[in-house]
Amino acid sequence: MKIIDLSLPIDELAFEVHKVDIERVTHKAGVGKFNRVIMGKTLWGKIKYIFGQRIIKSTDLPDEEFLSLEIVHAPVHIGTHLDYSFHYGSKSEGRASKTADEIPLEYCYQNGVKLEFTHKKPNEVIKADDIEAALKKINYQLKPLDIVLLHTGADKLYGGPKYFADYPGVDPSAIDYLLERGIKIFGVDTMGIDRPYRFMLKEFLETKDVRKFYPAHFYGRKKEFIHIERLTNLENLPDFGFKVLCFPIRIKNTGAAWARVVAFLD
To answer: Do 37 and 84 lie in a common domain?
Structure first.
């Protein structure tokens, strides 16, 4: 069995719209961190720390090192992640939206299908008839719970500003097409399922037509669906005949959750 990693990292050095920071406490600095945290739990401990007392010293430890510690400060939409209905709005299908920790895990390990859309240009959208044509091209009929991956190739722009500006979006008609066939999760190798901000926001401000602004995301208020954003390496997958695993990290009451998405090939 071959495992293909379909996930992008959380990387504080990559270009991002939202601030990402990873505080990295080294093995050497970990000794000081331990003393500050443990002694800081009581007033008397804080006083003793200020006057130079320590519970442990680096010389007490093997190699004079403690443990490393990384503290990640990042939105749940950084790195490869799953979005659920709470992200799209407070209600979906007329009831309270569900959060990412409520995603049914049985949806997250299913047969995968890859559809090619590398011909789509930035500002274009993938519509229902595009999905149908891509399925006909690979002679595949969707089955309920298939995880459908839309390959645009935009992941190769990750790390720079173009990643946020040059990719096609997904039209609500395409989402409807998938939902009508029992699909619960679909994924994209772009940073989002709507068109880039530079097109979408410009058109909305010019026309004030709300249908121009986040139509795919807002469609999640009408129909409940889950999607994966920021996939990568889809070019290494066959059209079908593989499994996808996309279990979300269990974070309470969020609209999205990070996931290590992988594909299993026989």
So the answer is: no
Q: For residue 48, give both structure tokens.
A: 């003793």
Contact 82, 259 (CB under 8 A): yes
Supply the range of the domain harboring residue 249.
2-10+76-265
Assign residue 207 a region: left if phi > 0, alpha if psi is -120 to 50, beta otherwise? alpha
Q: What does the pLDDT average to over 98-108?
A: 98
Residue 198: name the closest of 174, 163, 154 by CA: 163
In a domain, 15, yes or no: no
> Hey, what are 32's tokens?
């000081």
- Report the number of distinct structural domains present in the chain: 2
**Residues 148 and 49 both lie in one domain:** no
Residue 235 amino acid letter: E
E-assigned strand segments in 122-234? 125-126, 147-151, 169-170, 185-188, 226-229
Q: Give the domain CATH number at 235.
A: 3.50.30.50
The first and second tokens of residue 49, run together, are 């720390």
* Confidence (pTM): 0.92
φ, ψ for residue 92 (rounded to 5)?
A: -140, 130
222-252 pLDDT tens trace: 999 999 999 999 999 999 999 999 999 999 9
Q: 3-class DSSP state for residue 188?
A: strand
